[in-house]
Amino acid sequence: MTSSQTESPTPTERIPLLGSTSAEMRRSGPLANLPPYRARQVAHWLYARGETDFARMTDLPQPLREEFADRYSLSPDPVADLQKAANGEADKYLFRLPDGRLIESVLIRTPDRVTFCISSQAGCAYGCDFCATARMGPGRNLTVREIVSQVMALRRALVGEGREPVHNIVFMGMGEPLQNVENVIASLRLLQDPEGLGIGWRRITVSTVGLIPQILRLAESDVSARLAYSLSATTDEVRDALMPVNRKYPFREVFEALAAYQRRTRMPVTLEYVLLDGVNDADDDARRLGGFARDLGCKINLITYNPHPASPYRPTPPERVQRFLRLVEPLAPAVTLRQSKGQDILAACGQLSTRWREPAPGAEPRS
Ligand code: SF4
After folding, report:
1. Which atom of ligand 1 is nearest to the CA of 175?
2. Can you tell me which residues form the catalytic site (predicted)?
3. Catalytic residue positions?
4. CB distance 85 to 347 below 8 Å
């Protein structure tokens, strides 16, 4: 187990291995007294082949399989609900954590790629005004096991579809990943480890509302990931109202941290911009946004809004989205437009669990 995880077994419980690298697996239980290749065998079965039953790890001697099954657990978190968009573009998973809390992950299909949108926290303290997860209030950080378990479950769901197991992973589900920065870093290490899930860092994006110390922490860590900054406003006045974190970390100061991140990774960050009708979609917003991207040398990802039932905001109409795009494009190095997927299954983060939710211990709903 990593020191940053919060699940610690009592002496009578089985030791959870999912979420540990093969080196970490050797720190406790029978694997501590066995040659390192035994832990590597278990890690290969678990992460490369998705096997969670020791009985089927056929290159381990039978007595070891039985001893490991007695002492270790490989269990992913169970699926509490699954909804599939009618057009096949998105599947939304609701997982039940060991303490009863619920988190969401979304599998998004486009013709050329599959994206896993995963959660990093159960709930969120940041109170962004347009976000369904914000209504849950502060929850808790997910452990490395709970983060990686989502990826493994979604990857398993793709078996049989004849597609590569994973194309892209985005930390854009419930929660602010950088508030859980140590477990997110440990998860990135395991996702990228050739003896773990072996996913290239360029395929993994961490999306943040702009926590400056943690952006710098990630930049200095031993792992890499693409970084996306959820901006969604071009003035402090509008961003203060939409995303209260702007009062602590004003976006112009965040830009300096993003520039440092780009220097460290040599990868352009992305400015994410959710278009809200009449709030942040004026011509001047488009020109300012394009100017920010030009000055930073970074990309822009425009996102159409997927409103949740209690939201006061509406999506920008399609003709205005196109006008906004035309104004931004000449200024920014690169612009993409992402249409929200799976409206019929409430695919934006937090929407399924807030509808479904049972009271979770310690969680104080705001509304
Ligand atoms: S947008 Fe992200 S940071 Fe903001 S409230 Fe929602 S989950 Fe939290």
Report:
1. 7
2. 104, 349
3. 104, 349
4. yes
Q: Looking at domain 15-73, does it have CATH number 1.10.150.530?
A: yes
Q: Which of 110, 119, 75 is nearest to 90 (CA)?
A: 110
Is residue 175 a known part of a binding site? Answer: yes
**What is the reported pTM?**
0.89
CA nearest 192: which of 217, 216, 218, 222? Answer: 222
The verdict on whether residue 306 carries a ligand-binding annotation is: yes
Q: Does the beta carbon of 281 sit less than 6 angstroms from any atom of ligand 1? A: no
Q: How confident is the model at residue 66 (pLDDT cuts 50, 70, 90)?
A: very high
Ligand 1 neighbourhood includes 133 CB (under 6 angstroms): yes
308 alpha carbon – ligand 1 mean position (Å): 14
pLDDT of res. 113 = 85
What type of residue sits at position 220? E
With cut-offs at 50, 70 and 90, classify the pLDDT of residue 2. Answer: very low
Give domain limits for the chain. Answer: 15-73, 79-356
Token pair belonging to 199: 């996913």
Token pair recorded at residue 76: 């992913």
Q: Is 298 annotated as a binding residue?
A: no
SS3 call for 155: helix
pLDDT digits (tens, 9 = 90+) for 212-252: 999 999 999 999 999 999 999 999 999 999 999 999 999 99
More confident residue, 8 or 211: 211
What residues contact residue 10 under an 8 Å CB cut-off, 6+ apart? none
Tell me, in angstroms, the distance from the centre of ligand 1 to residue 123's CA.
Answer: 9
Is the beta carbon of 348 within 6 A of some atom in ligand 1?
A: no
Q: Distance from the CA of 28 to the center of ligand 1, in angstroms? A: 36
**Residue 128: CB within 6 Å of ligand 1?**
yes
Question: Do residues 191 and 199 lie in contact, with contact meaning Cβ atoms separated by under 8 Å?
Answer: yes
